Amino acid sequence: MTAASSEAEVLDMIPIAAAVITSGTAAEPAGFTGSVWGEPRNPGWLAVPVSAESSTLPIAEATGRVGVNVLGAHGRPLVAAFTKRVERSAQRFCGVEWTFRDGVPVLNDGIAWFACALDAVVPFGTYRMMMCRIEHSEIRSRHSPLVWVNGRGVPAGEPTTEALR
After folding, report:
1. Which of 56, 65, 75, 129 maximizes the CB count within 10 A of its CB?
2. What is the pTM of this model?
3. In degrees rounded to 5, what are phi and psi of residue 135?
């Protein structure tokens, strides 16, 4: 018999795709490490949870644009860069290669990316769910995506037993 687990412990066991969510302008980009859920319809949709206190949220609301950069197994340094606390979100882009395409910052090291119109922001506990309509998407490589499980980045397709400990 096992001991009871907290909801947080159980939720940490659900693998989620690691992504860098971006917005802003070419002169003042913004971004954070996050996750995303997709609905492949015509048009496609992405749901992106963001902390209600995120500095990127008001920028996305002002521009009406959201970029989603899917990270590959080699993307752990990007997770760290876009998770760190900074005075201005644009500081997270220092030392990161990126371009501005279709109205969003696009990371050169992502394995895929989406440019989206922000259609709605919905309350979701202490978060907000950004409802994003996909306007452009591109696969850059077929490498394994990076998934987040139990607080650690693990390449998809590799055993996650170690990450679950």
Report:
1. 75
2. 0.89
3. -110, -25
Cα angle 17, 76, 130 (rounded to 5 degrees) comes to 40
Report the chain's C-alpha Rg in angstroms: 16
Domain ranges of the chain: 7-155
- Which amino acid makes up residue 57? L
Domain covering 7-155, topology: Pnp Oxidase; Chain A (2.30.110)
The residues, ordered by sequence, that sit 6+ positions from 94 with a Cβ below 8 Å of its Cβ are none
Bridge partners of 127, per DSSP, are 51, 124
Please report, for residues 52, 73, 75, 102, the alpha-carbon distance to residue 28 in angstroms, rounded to integers and kept in the order given: 20, 28, 23, 15
Tell me if the bond preceding 105 is cis, omega within 30° of 0: no
| Nearest residue to 139 (alpha-carbon basis) of 113, 159, 108, 160 | 113
